[in-house]
């Protein structure tokens, strides 16, 4: 496995672990109020965005075309 692909898989794994942890905190009722809930949901969105960015960077690194948004 080349370095680019390995790095992407490691990033995907780590970000996925953080997503699961933060989602579990929301599901179990950890937010103390609406503001805390919104903050935690924002963290989830940021982590999902990071996964999309990592995927696009990996695609560019291995020479695939960019995805076009519809």
Please report the number of helical segments.
Answer: 2
**Structural class per helix/strand content?**
mainly alpha
Mean pLDDT: 90
Approximate helicity band: over 70%
Question: How are helices and strands ordered from N to C?
Answer: HH
Report the end-to-end length measured between terminal Cα atoms.
32 Å
Low-confidence blocks of residues: none
Number of strands: 0
| Largest β-sheet summary | none
- Categorize the overall geometry: elongated
Strand content: under 5%
Whole-number radius of gyration? 15 Å
Give me some keywords for this one.
70 residues, mainly alpha, elongated
Descriptive account of the structure:
This protein has 70 residues and is an all-alpha fold. It has a domain at 16-61. The protein has helices at 3-27, 34-61. α1 runs antiparallel to α2. The longest helix has 28 residues, at 34-61. The protein is elongated. The protein starts with a helix and ends in a 9-residue tail after the last helix.
Quick structural gist:
By secondary structure, the protein is mainly alpha-helical. It contains two helices and no strands. Helix 1 (3-27) runs antiparallel to helix 2 (34-61).
Protein topology:
Blueprint: H1 3-27, H2 34-61
